[in-house]
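Proteins fold reproducibly. Next comes a concrete instance:

***
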Amino acid sequence: MRSNLIVVAALTLVLALKWVTKEGEGVVVSSDSRATVGPVSYEVRKVCPIFLAEGGVPLAVAGGAGDASLVKQGYRVCERILTEMAIKEWGRATPTFEQFEEAVRRIELALMDRISELRARGVEPDFSMVLASVDSKGRASIYVFNERGLAEPVHDNPGFAILGRGLFTGGALLLRLLGYAAEESYALDLGLLSTFIIDVVSEVDPSVGPFVGESWLMRVEEGRVFLGNLKPEALREYKERSWRRRELLKRLWRLLDVIGEERVEGSLRELEGSLERASTSES
């Protein structure tokens, strides 16, 4: 017998961005803080860091959008499979790029089975999840699991993932408009970029909450894999700088209307030239 009404909590905006660093590639996974059930919204955590309990070895970081219950089940599947493989096959270490790829395939099969079971019971799930990791050689992996449980690698192309309704209400547009490209991300502050996108989308989409610091960075630091979250002082800085950049973008647009694109572009070229000269003299 099929269900006539299924009420679920919807998770609405998650960003996963590849970040090129001096020691290789890193991954930043960030989210808003709002879940909705009909007209009711509440705060919820949408990013799940995964560590090996014994020794706190970082394994991966996950983020999900859609049905909250199914997203949580997805996290548990990832934690179980990654932990088992770390203990039995990886020597209790962070997985290599190839080992993580094999883990994703096992997770994919488990999720496909669960989703097929739900559909057989008349439940049509709303689900997407991103799972990312960085190995000790500084090579990043980002996989997106769709509503069928199938995994797609996005670490090479396009180098990012956006999940949830926020994708359609400005997330992807802002990411492109603000010049994100994985191969050039070394010059960007991805923590600030994520804060800006989530806050701006939250102003036009009531199902998306403002950024409150749910952001995790996985990278290689001094030869070791590190997985850590955004500190409160960094959150305060990002929120202030995000607001200032919105105001500067408004002023820049008005300035373009008043004096025209050519003069503004000329001034920008002069500023960029002075930065290049300063960088050359320092080197």
Remarks:
- The two ends are 71 Å apart (CA to CA).
- Confidence is low (pLDDT under 50) at residues 1-9.
- The helical segments are 68-88, 97-120, 171-177, 190-204, 232-259, 261-282.
